[in-house]
Design a protein that fits this description.
Layout lengths: L5 E4 L3 E6 L12 E6 L1 H12 L3 E8 L2 H13 L2 E8 L6 E6 L5 E3 L23 H5 L2 E4 L7 H16 L3 E5 L14 H8 L4 E5 H8 L4 H8 L4 E5 L5 E5 L2 E5 L12 H16 L7 H18 L12 H23 L1
Parallel strand pairs: 1-4, 1-8, 2-6, 4-5, 8-9, 9-10, 10-11
Antiparallel strand pairs: 2-3, 6-7, 11-12, 12-13
Helix pairs in contact: 1-8, 8-9, 9-10
Length: about 325
């Protein structure tokens, strides 16, 4: 069995993406189902980049669950940590899009958010042996909204700390998953006290910390080795091992932003696994790692879906090379 260097715990689901950008939920007549769920997206993107990853989560004993489990297996994600629930269905999320490609979560059809299998991930079913050889554990915050999955997160944190696994949180804030969104702040802040690396969107940073400055957030939490704040076409700000900076967004033609942030996380983690955490001590290397992550996030946004849109290593290298050449030409023209 391949040892998973990164474990991704949380939801795998179907994103029902509107085929009619610009229309509100009640007017959309056609949807296309794409496999998704932030932790599953990260695991798949990592494997495609060449870093072994495993997924831990719960799906229903239904056709959708079968299809998602088979997809993860086909991509090469270790599914040892997948649980199946006998009666709760696999989650589906409806996503409407603007004409510019930005997406907005629009609910769960006719079901309550707490009815789905991912909310029933069992703490005592987590395979402890997966944590023995892992380097990183990736978590979101959606599972904190439900008793069973919150307990599973608590158990995963114990196992990670027991085996010296670094903990990475992508906040991935979705108020639609919470009956009382304001009540989410306390458990999220409690979680962040145990985290090594934190990734937030600019809006999430404002919501949780009332700032978009990653160094301020790193100082406030006190235990973080790195903070990354993504802001769409405005790029990314970072504070990594006290090295701070901003990376502009790549100029791309956006098709669909679903999963772009997850690909960013995967790109950064792939770099950490390749270069080692000690590499963050060098300012240029830290910046290069963020540029690489930004390239993967940008490429994912140029195609529809999350997992289906993820690039190969060759595509990433070609993309970076093209933009480096363009930047060189611009610098050369400016020197004339």
């Amino acid at each position: 069995m391949t040892i998973s260097r990164v474990l991704c715990l949380g939801e795998v689901l179907l994103d029902y993406l509107s085929d009619e950008p610009g229309k509100p939920l009640e007017q959309v007549m056609s949807w296309t189902a794409y496999p998704g769920g932030a932790p599953a997206n990260v695991a798949c993107a990592l494997v495609k980049l060449g870093t072994a990853a495993g997924f831990i989560g719960c799906v229903g004993a239904d056709a959708d669950g079968d299809a998602l489990v088979h997809l993860l297996h086909d991509v090469g994600v270790d599914g040892t940590g997948i649980q199946r629930h006998a009666t709760a269905p696999t989650r589906g999320v409806y996503v409407v899009r603007t004409e510019e490609g930005d997406r907005h979560f629009a609910g769960f059809g006719h079901r309550d958010t707490a009815e789905f299998a991912d909310t029933h991930l069992q703490a005592d079913g987590l395979p402890g042996e997966l944590f023995e050889q892992a380097d990183f554990l990736v978590l979101g915050t959606l599972e904190l909204a439900y008793a069973d999955s919150a307990a599973a997160i608590a158990r995963a944190l114990e196992l990670a700390e027991q085996h010296f696994v670094k903990i990475v949180v992508d906040v991935n804030w979705r108020p639609v998953f919470w009956t009382d969104p304001e009540a989410a702040k306390a458990p999220i802040h409690d979680l962040l006290k145990r985290v090594d690396f934190l990734k937030l969107s600019a809006e999430e940073a404002e919501w949780l910390f009332e700032t978009r400055d990653p160094s301020v957030i790193a100082h406030r939490v006190g235990t973080l080795e790195g903070v990354l704040i993504t802001d769409g076409d405005k790029g990314c700000a970072y504070c990594l091992n006290e090295n701070e900076g901003r990376v502009p967004a790549f100029p791309i033609e956006v098709e669909d932003t679903t999963g772009a942030g997850d690909s960013f996380v995967a790109g950064f983690l792939h770099q950490l696994c390749e270069r080692g955490i000690h590499a963050l001590g060098d300012p240029q290397t830290a910046r290069d790692m963020v540029v690489y992550a930004s390239a993967i996030g940008g490429l994912t946004a140029t195609r529809a879906g999350a997992i289906a849109a993820q690039p190969s290593p060759a595509e990433v290298q070609a993309f970076l090379y093209m933009h480096q050449q363009q930047a060189s030409r611009i610098r050369g023209n400016g020197a004339d």
